[in-house]
Recover the amino acids of this structure.
């Protein structure tokens, strides 16, 4: 799992995602189509300067579309249409008047600039101020100066309503896009807050949340719930012999083994250091002991190949306990911990059950004592 990223970097990563690239490309294609139509409209209305400008606009949107295909040029692809909108709105307002509503298309530039995650705050404020000044200057200019081309009233209204509709559409799409980015970043942060960055296992905090739910469900539905507390044997010596990186590789391999043995409804969490806790809903002690023994065997068959060429074999000791009625979750963990401790004392590489009712997986008399019981000989 990659190291955790700060929130702003998650946002940047989301903005640079495939979806955002696609959105800019679609907007560029739409811009090309709209400006192709404007070439015809302004040609027909006898405003050759605007018709010619729209030829440039089509070229700009085509360029923007092409930039979305090149890696890392998303900023260029997004900035080109913004410059075009600013120039087009200014020119059109001066030549065919404020009433045509081209100035409306300048308004989405503000949220676009302010939400751009890679731009420095000062630059954002500068650009936003510039847009506001141009907008107001245009309004003042067009209030005192008649447009150089007076359009047919029907065409003027059609252009105005088209521009108003475009404004709503752009703001709607922008809001939807930003919401998507924020919710993806939120999900990523939530996942980060719930998992152990080294192995990808759930962390202790998340496990406790899930355990609270599982305990409540088990008590309400009168179903069983068990826990496995698993601790790698002599892990310190793995670190000592193969370095911390080697130890980390063993931890990851161990988590893989745990995941392979667990069902989808089970929760595997890093409880701390080289200790993992597995929560087994709808599982009684007998079932939990079976899972634990399978896991113990799987781990003892596992070989971790390190970059140094060394091969590491390791074993695990597992304490198993079933939740008793009315028992808090911390108590069942504490009993599993007691069994684990006894397993370590007894020689390691074994599965021990704690509490009552106790049943051994291996053949032999079923233990009757609530104290830790050895299930598997080392
Ligand atoms: N590489 C690595 N080591 C860790 C990590 N977290 C804890 N450890 C190491 O895990 C070791 C745990 O050692 P001990 O508690 O003495 O246990 P042990 O050597 O496994 O001995 P037993 O549990 O008694 O079999 C310590 O050396 C910790 O530094 C980690 O994230 N990565």
């Amino acid at each position: 799992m990659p190291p955790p990223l700060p929130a702003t970097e998650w946002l940047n990563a989301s903005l640079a995602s495939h979806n955002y690239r696609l959105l800019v490309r679609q907007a560029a294609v739409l811009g090309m189509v709209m400006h192709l139509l404007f070439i015809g409209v302004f040609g027909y209305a006898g405003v050759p300067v605007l018709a010619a400008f729209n030829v440039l606009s089509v070229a700009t949107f085509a360029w923007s579309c092409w930039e979305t295909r090149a890696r890392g040029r998303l900023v260029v692809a997004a900035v080109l249409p913004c410059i075009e909108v600013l120039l087009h709105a200014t020119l059109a307002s001066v030549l065919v008047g404020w009433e045509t509503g081209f100035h409306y298309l300048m308004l989405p530039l503000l949220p676009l600039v302010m939400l751009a995650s890679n731009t420095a705050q000062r630059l954002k404020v500068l650009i936003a101020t510039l847009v506001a000044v141009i907008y107001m200057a245009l309004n003042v200019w067009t209030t005192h100066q008649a447009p150089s081309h007076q359009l047919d009233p029907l065409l003027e209204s059609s252009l105005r309503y088209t521009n108003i509709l475009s404004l709503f559409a752009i703001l709607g799409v922008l809001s939807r896009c930003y919401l998507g980015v924020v919710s993806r970043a939120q999900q990523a942060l939530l996942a980060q807050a719930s998992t152990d960055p080294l192995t990808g296992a759930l962390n202790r905090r998340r496990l406790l949340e899930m355990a609270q739910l599982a305990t409540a469900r088990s008590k309400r539905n009168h179903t069983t719930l068990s826990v496995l507390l698993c601790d790698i044997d002599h892990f310190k010596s793995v670190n000592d012999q193969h370095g911390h990186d080697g130890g980390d590789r063993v931890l990851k391999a161990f988590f893989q083994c745990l995941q392979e043995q667990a069902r989808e409804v089970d929760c595997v969490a890093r409880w701390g250091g080289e200790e993992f806790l597995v929560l087994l809903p709808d599982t009684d002690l007998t079932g939990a002991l079976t899972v634990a023994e399978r896991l113990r065997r799987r781990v003892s068959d596992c070989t971790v190949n390190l970059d140094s060429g060394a091969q590491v074999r390791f074993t695990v000791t597992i304490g198993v306990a079933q939740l008793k009625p009315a028992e808090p979750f911390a108590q069942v963990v504490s009993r599993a911990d007691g069994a684990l401790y006894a397993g370590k004392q007894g020689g390691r590489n074994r599965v021990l059950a704690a509490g009552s009712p106790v049943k051994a997986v291996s053949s032999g008399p079923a233990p009757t004592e609530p104290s830790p019981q050895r299930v598997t000989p080392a």
